[in-house]
Each structure stands twice: as C-alpha cells, then as structure tokens.
Amino acid sequence: MKKDFYLTRYALIIKRLESSPATYSQLEDYLLNSFEFQDADIKSYSIRTLQRDIREISDLFNLSIHNKKKGDNRYYIESRPIMEVDEYNQKLLESFQVSNAMNTHPDFADFIFFESRKPTGVENFYDLFFAIRNKRIVSFEHYNYKNKLMTSRKVHPLALKESKDRWYLIAIDTKDKMLKSFGLDRINYLDVSEKQFREKYKYNFREHFKNAFGVMNLSEQNPEKIVLKCSRHQGEYIKSFPLHQSQKELKETPEEIYFEFFLHPTYDFMQEILSYGKEVRVLEPKTLVDEIRNHLQQSLNSYLSE
User: Fold this and answer.
1) Domain check: are 175 and 263 in the same one?
2) Angle at 119 between CA 141 and CA 103, to 5 degrees
3) Is there a domain that residue 214 lies in?
4) In what order do the strands lie in the sheet with 224-231?
5) Model pLDDT for residues 79-124, shown as the tens digit of each residue
6) Residue 76 maps to which CATH number?
7) What is the mean pLDDT of residues 6-31?
8) What is the pTM of this model?
9) Structurally, how many domains does the chain consist of?
10) How confident is the model at residue 85, as a pLDDT?
11) Contact 174, 156 (CB under 8 A)
12) DSSP code per residue over 72-108
C-alpha cells in the first residue's frame, strides 16, 4: 500500500459509510473499484489496514466508526446531531482530497484551476491559532478601511472564523472589554506575548454565531424570520448550497422557490441578497424589505446623477 495514499483512503471510507453501513468485504470492493484506487494501480486492501485507517480517521476527523452494534459486522459512522458536525473537519477533509490529487498527479495544473483571488493576512493564521490555544495576549495594528485609520489593539484572542473566503479573529478588546472581530487582512505587526490572560470567558461560539450571517452577530437583538422569493434557477443554486444553517424550503412553483431563514438581518446578509439582483426578492420582514429598497434606490440614483 502506498504510504502517501492514506488521505484518499480516509476520504473514500468516510464517503462510503456516510451513505450506509458496510462490511469489510463491501468496503474493500468499494475502494478497489474506485477511480482513485484504479488510477493508483492498487490491487489489495487488508482488514488490518482498514482497522488502522479507522483509528486514524477517529483521531484526525473526530469521527467514530464502529462495527459492534449492527450484529452483522457492518462498519458504520456513529450518528450524532447534525448541528454537531464539525465544519473544520469537513473543510480539512476536502482540502486533503484536493491535496492528495495534486500530489498523486504532477500534471494536475493542466486540469485543476484555483481561484486567483487570494485574501491577505493568512500568514498570521497559525500564530493566532497558537495564541488562542495557549491563552496568550496579542497586540497588533489594525487598519480600518472605512475611515482609513490604523489603531493599536491589545486583545485576548478567543476564536477564528471564516466568512466569504476571509478569516477573522474573534477577541476581547482589553480597552473596553468588548467582543470584536478583526479581519486578518487588516492586521499588521502582530505580536504574540509570552504573557497569558487569566480571564475565563464562557462564550459558546457555535451558539453565538448560530443566528449570525458572516461575522456580524447582533446579540442584543432577537433574530427574525426572513422569507425570500427566488427565481427557479437561482433557487436551485441556493438549495444546493444553503445560505445559512436555518434555511428551510417553504414551497416551489414552476417559476419560483420560496425559502425561510431565522437569523439577524445584518448588513452582511443584505449584501448577500443584493448580490443576486432581480433573481431574489425579500418578502419578510418589512424592515428588511425597506432597507433593500432604499439601498437599490441609492444605487440607481448614483447612476442617474452622472
């Protein structure tokens, strides 16, 4: 078995068991008949390798795979509530699948094309991750795009969050003790102190961002029910790639699809809706309808004034 092929095996095992439980023989048959195994010219897969792979999958992706409760030696992924699915592990798995394809086939550049737009600031990702895990106080200069000012910040870093291919540091600003987000692309002169902060913050960020869209969370306000009417073809895209975890499909017609959400109607969400143009229309709440209408009117006025 090729030593550099383990990531592909992990991905295939997870993919097969997510569809239904399977015995060792069924897993072996699935793997050996996969395009990945055929492409790598791999002809065998032992039960010892499967058992080792299952242990590694558990450690790496926090997925527990068992074969003791089905009564017929079928392996299965232990079920858990969908809200507990770890987005980090899913992204890690996706990255590994792409990485393995590139490493296995040197000519990948002829067939795989990446987005050329790259966010800045990711070079600070690991340093901030280290600071979060070790409760280190962090200092940096932060640039505000709107007012074009650079300010010095000292923070207690708590989490990292992704939104639209950009990363944000979620931290307590020591100046006013407020929870804030800082775009990594706007962080300069990062310094991770050797000094730890002693405060024990009790934020549950999975719950904190449950009703948020992007990094903005209006925790002082209640989330609202939002109803969208989408053109049929745009609605199909939104069905296949939901805008938010609260998304529910209300009804379909030959021409339109209606969706319901439960979240804070933040500026980020409004920008997302506006990006769809005439293909998506807000029906509820009225406050968001009025906000969208005013924004569109201002955009139109800016074109008419020239």
Assistant:
1) no
2) 130
3) no
4) 248-252, 256-263, 224-231, 280-284
5) 554 434 456 566 666 666 666 666 666 666 677 777 766 666 778 8
6) 1.10.10
7) 86
8) 0.67
9) 3
10) 44
11) yes
12) S--BEEPP--GGG--HHHHHHHHHHHHHHHHHH-GGG
Residue 234 and residue 273 in one domain: yes
Return d(Cα 301, Cα 232) in angstroms, integer: 29
Residue 219 lies in a domain: no
Q: Is residue 218 part of a domain?
A: no
**Dihedral Cα 113, 115, 119, 124, nearest 10 deg:** -20
Is 178 inside any structural domain?
Answer: yes
3-state SS track over 182-244 = EEHHHEEEEEEEEEECCCCCCCCHHHHCCCCECCECCCCCCCEEEEEEEEHHHHHHHHHCCCC
Sequence-distant (6+) residues with CB within 8 A of 14 are 57, 61, 63, 77, 93
Distance of alpha carbon 163 from alpha carbon 161, whole angstroms: 7
Backbone angles phi, psi at 116, to 5 degrees: -80, -20
Same domain membership, residue 175 and residue 133: yes
| Location of structure tokens 């699948």 | 97
Q: Are 156 and 197 in contact (CB under 8 A)?
A: yes
| CATH number of the domain bearing residue 153 | 2.30.30
The structure tokens listed for 286 are 């009225």
- Reduced to 3 states (helix: H, G, I; strand: E, B; else coil), residue 150 is strand
Residues 239 and 199 in one domain: no
Report CA-CA distances (Å) from 255 to 102, 136, 236, 241, 258: 41, 54, 11, 19, 10
The span from the CA of 105 to the CA of 112, in Å, is 11
User: Do 252 and 182 share a domain, yes or no?
Assistant: no
Range of the domain at 267: 224-304
Cα gap 211→146, rounded to integer Å: 26
Token output for 278: 């005439």
Q: What angle do CA 253, 254, 260 make, to 5 degrees?
A: 35
